[in-house]
What does this fold into?
Amino acid sequence: MKPLLAFVGVGALLVGSALYAQSGKLSDQEFRKLAQSHANVDEHQKLAAHYMAHAIEHESDAKVHEDLANQYDKTEPKLTGEARHYAAHSREAAEALRALAKLHQELAKEHTAKK
It folds into this structure.
């Protein structure tokens, strides 16, 4: 019963994080357009929100796969290493995305200061 409860808990975390992250996500077309122009405060803020939304998704993936790795330690040890590897990769990606978001927030402030 515990593995089922752990799986349900991880699933709820993933769904909740994904819903939160959706609020700042842009479509691929919108993202490409803004990434090429990013000419004003609003565009930088939208890009920052987009990057943060992706960071949240990657952090959620990291949490899910770290939890799975802990479960795999008990049930399927062969899967543990790759689950931890993916969790680490997801954390690294989230860090890079947060850095991009921070840069766009700083650029938005610079545009505000120019006004």
Summary: Residues 27 and 107 are 22 Å apart (CA to CA). Residues 2-114 form one domain. Residues 41-75 form the longest helix (35 residues).
